[in-house]
Amino acid sequence: MNCRDWFRALTRTMVLLVLSTVADAEPNLRILTSMTEQVYEPYVAAFRARNPGVDVLVLNKNTNFAVGEIALGNQRGFDIFWASSPEAFELLSESGHLSTLDGVPYRGFALSSVGWSWREDRLTGPAPTQWNDLLDGRFAGQIGIARPSRSGTTHMLVEQILQNRGWDNGWAYLLELSANLATITSRSFGVIDGLKSSRFLLGLNIDFLALSEAGNGLKFRYARPVTLATARIAKLENSTSPELADRFIRFVGSEEGQRLLLTPSIRRVPVDPGVRAQVDYSDFPALEAALQFSWTHYDPKLAADRYWAVNALFDQFITLQLNQRRELWRKLRVLEARQDPAMRADLAKVRQLLTRMPVPEAEAMAEKLRVAPGPGSLYATLLPIQKQAINEWGDLALEWLEAAATRLGHHE
After folding, report:
1. How many domains does the chain have?
2. How far apart are CA 270 and CA 280, in angstroms?
3. In terms of residue numbers, what domain contains 323?
4. 90 CB neighbour count, 10 Å cutoff
5. Quick one: 127 and 86 in the same domain?
6. Kind of pairing, strands 143-146 and 181-185?
7. Whole-prediction pTM value?
8. Cβ-Cβ contacts under 8 Å for 46 (sequence gap 6 or more)
9. Are residues 14 and 71 in the same domain?
10. What is the pLDDT of residues 24-77, one digit of tens each?
11. Same domain? 12 vs 160
12. Rounded to an integer, what distance in angstroms lies between the CA atom of residue 111 and that of residue 123?
């Protein structure tokens, strides 16, 4: 374990000790969230001001870790789960881990969509205006993305591509995009950090992470078609303070709570149409543009049904094979640039090997593969059938890459 990992583990342990120590003291509300401090702190401060004597304890975890902990029974008695990934709430609702409020298991909080960010002072030439622009060779090794199995918002980004383009075309796009990836970070915040530190030129992320950094020179563009998804908040089963949870959730959905979304540190679109209608978005051009674009429908239920499979496929075909896949794309692009008729058919076959997902959608949607993500890792608590699927998919990924490498080797 390196120093950074050790420090993170120590910090997490200290937070948990605080949670357990305070349990028998003053009334407190426990929130488990993937939201950044920039998002949740204004709400916590406002709620404390409205409820003197009530403490609010917040533990920040990525969506997969958080859902895994809740799926194991919410042993530490968190009251609220709060996240941007709507499919996480579908998973928890289906497995009975959410407690209803006014007859519903969760409530919408804000509207979000995905796109890409860049630093104005680093990007030369025109910024990408559509998804396909990100496949341009000038961005080879210059795009950052988070690992979907560790980032709920990146999983949502991947799902939006799959839903808008269809299973086969969506994976073809993602597999070709790997040619231009610089890195795959462990959390979505890492993409923003990488842009700020100039590790890469472009970052794929959700709108609010980039818009909240507008003062630091980051620009953001929504991908089209704009697919607005609803961030949610819910009360958990085994809640230690259910009445406080109800009170907090109602505050988040109130007019005051919805207006907090427009503070510079948050910059999110209120889910309440009445509040949206009252807001002047002229100071938030990216948000205004998103609301004016035609929206496409995002299906969180579909995303939840194949949640584990999509994350596992991305890891087996992209995350774990990124270096090899990126090098094969580099070689293919060099050979394609020669425009040699004698190589055309062979290179077309190589391109097919690099852009085709050999796992059909029906296999990924199989009921036997569906399970809530486990704590700590996508692979922490696997069913035997899932282990078998991972082994088969990993072998397929290697087989297809080796076939592509062999064909390219004939022309070197």
Report:
1. 2
2. 12
3. 114-225+307-364+382-409
4. 22
5. no
6. parallel
7. 0.88
8. 251, 256, 257, 260
9. yes
10. 456 799 999 999 898 999 999 999 999 999 999 999 998 888 998 898 889 899
11. no
12. 28
